[in-house]
Write a structure and sequence with these properties.
The chain has two domains: about 45 residues; about 240 residues, no CATH class. The protein is built from nine helices and twelve strands.
């Protein structure tokens, strides 16, 4: 080893100045190259995380909307089953409405549709066989199979005509409140259900005297959207007036207090405020506002996107 060191020293001493500078520069370039490659590898590793081991691992962290999540945003045009006009500490057998965004709408010549995935069993009105409970908390009553018959279509058209004729006198909210209608959902919401409690408790399905009126709070003031009717008793759908066109619905996730809907139940079915309305009424909307009537005539609920043109004054 000592002999080798002496030979290297002799060769280096025998080199000229130019040769010594060339070999020194070459060594410097080599070290720099190693450092650059190392830095590049570190940056690449930190900016490109490792992919999941499998597709199942990738999807494991993605959530699916639940009934509680779907019902938490209450800004659309649905009214829920009510308990009554007076303040109560436990659910009663009188009616009460809702306001929660959820379903798509359907024309008067087609069966209503509902958004949200179907759940296995309803948490309310188990006595009604054949219902479908959606992830947004809506309990859809069964309807006759197939498209409406000519007689059912005519009956549905008559219901719309009678409702529209009655609602002509309530085009202004002041006329409705003067007639005894009071808010059953949050008055400052996008859509507000107004209840006539004496009517609701006597005959909830009378086109000449609707139990509920529905208004939208728009940039131009309150706009009448339509009416809502109730079934004859708690957990009892009304008549299939228009066959598959007129599908009744209830809500299984509403919290009530003082005759108003004040929220939705959580994942455990508990209300943070108010009481869970388990003795709900089935409901039927008839939308008469022109932009809704053509395609959403009997839809159980309306999305915010469907309401936006009305609220923004562009309908």
């Amino acid at each position: 080893m000592e002999h080798l060191r002496q030979r290297v020293t002799q060769r280096w001493s025998g080199m000229g100045l130019a040769a010594r500078m060339w070999w020194a520069a070459l060594a410097t370039v080599g070290v720099a190259a190693v450092l650059v490659l190392s830095a590049t590898s570190v940056v690449d590793a930190t900016s490109h995380p490792a992919a999941p081991a499998s597709a199942a691992a990738k999807s494991a962290g993605s959530g699916t909307p639940t009934a509680a999540a779907a019902g938490s945003g209450s800004g659309s045009g649905s009214m829920a089953g009510m308990t009554g006009g007076a303040s109560t500490s436990t659910p009663t057998s009188t009616p009460t409405p809702t306001s929660s965004p959820a379903s798509a709408a359907s024309p008067a010549s087609a069966a209503p549709a509902s958004t949200g995935s179907a759940q296995a069993t309803p948490t309310v009105c188990a006595n009604v066989k054949g219902t479908t409970t959606m992830s947004n908390g809506m309990v859809m009553a069964p309807v006759p199979p197939g498209p409406p018959t000519a007689a059912q279509q005519a009956a549905a058209d008559l219901l719309v005509a009678q409702t529209r004729a009655t609602l002509a006198r309530y085009s202004s909210l002041s006329a409705a409140t003067a007639a005894g209608y009071t808010p059953a959902t949050k008055p400052t919401g996008y859509v507000v259900h107004y209840a006539n409690w004496p009517v609701a408790k006597s005959d909830g399905f009378d086109p000449s005297d609707p139990a509920f009126l529905v208004y939208a709070n728009t940039v131009n003031g309150p706009v009448l959207l339509g009416a809502m009717y109730l079934g004859p008793a708690p957990c009892t759908p009304g008549p299939d007036v228009g066959g598959s066109l007129t599908q009744w619905h209830a809500h299984d996730n509403l919290c009530l207090s003082g005759g108003q809907v004040v929220g939705n139940t959580d994942a455990t079915g508990t209300c943070a405020t108010g009481v869970h309305n388990t003795n709900t009424y089935f409901m039927l909307h008839v939308w008469t506002e022109p932009s809704l009537a053509t395609t959403h005539q009997f839809q159980a609920d309306l999305t915010r996107a469907e309401l936006a043109p009305i609220i923004e004054g562009n309908a």
